[in-house]
Design goal:
By secondary structure, the protein is an alpha/beta fold. The chain has one domain (2-167): Rossmann fold, CATH 3.40.50. The chain is 36% helix and 18% strand. It is built from 6 helices and 6 strands, in the order βααβαβαβαββα. It has helices at 14-19, 31-44, 60-72, 90-100, 115-125, 163-167, and strands at 2-7, 53-56, 78-80, 106-111, 139-143, 156-161. Strands 3-2-4-1-5-6 form a 6-stranded mixed sheet, sandwiched between helices. 39% of the residues are buried.
């Protein structure tokens, strides 16, 4: 099974958005962020031909990123998982993966830092301390025997690609 981890695209600046009196969870992608994510996905399509499901954090910027990925991947279904919010423990999404993704072979998950790099580190090493630097619109792919029996420390790294290597 393959788990493709993608950090949300560039969003409006947190400080500017808060000054407008709006809550951070509603912060949208910038036009530049949208365009960059589209380019990343088009290039990624050269390597990853299809995905079974896209799982997104419920925060606006992640959901918008997931929708861009869905458009590039032939309208692949997007579902939300609250276990992908920024400060959720890695164990929470691992539990989601075991119960909700049992029948899938390739998933894309879209979320935030520091959660995604901690989750990837947890799957690779069994430790929650992150040793991965995941840029906005960056991609990490992990391989594991099955989602139903996913365990901390049992995944293997297939690739980690900063966005600049996909679009420059």
């Amino acid at each position: 099974m393959e788990l493709i981890i993608i950090r949300h695209a560039v969003a409006e600046e947190r400080e500017d958005f808060v000054k407008k009196g709006l809550e951070d969870h509603m912060r949208p992608l910038t036009l530049k962020g949208r365009k960059r994510m589209q380019k990343v996905c088009v290039r990624l399509l050269d390597f990853v031909k299809e995905v079974d499901l896209i799982v997104s954090s419920p925060l606006t910027r992640a959901r918008q990123t997931a929708e861009i990925i869905s458009q590039i991947y032939f309208e692949t279904k997007v579902v939300e998982a609250p276990e992908l919010v920024p400060h959720s423990p890695p164990q929470a999404f691992l539990k989601w993966l075991r119960t909700q993704a049992r029948t899938h072979r390739r998933l894309v998950i879209v979320g935030h830092e520091p959660h995604l790099s901690s989750f990837a580190s947890y799957l690779l090493s069994g430790k929650t301390e992150s040793f991965i630097d995941l840029k906005k619109s960056g991609v990490i792919a992990l391989e594991m025997e099955s989602f139903a029996h996913a365990e901390a420390g049992a995944a293997q790294l297939l690739y980690a690609i900063p966005p600049k290597f996909l679009i420059d």
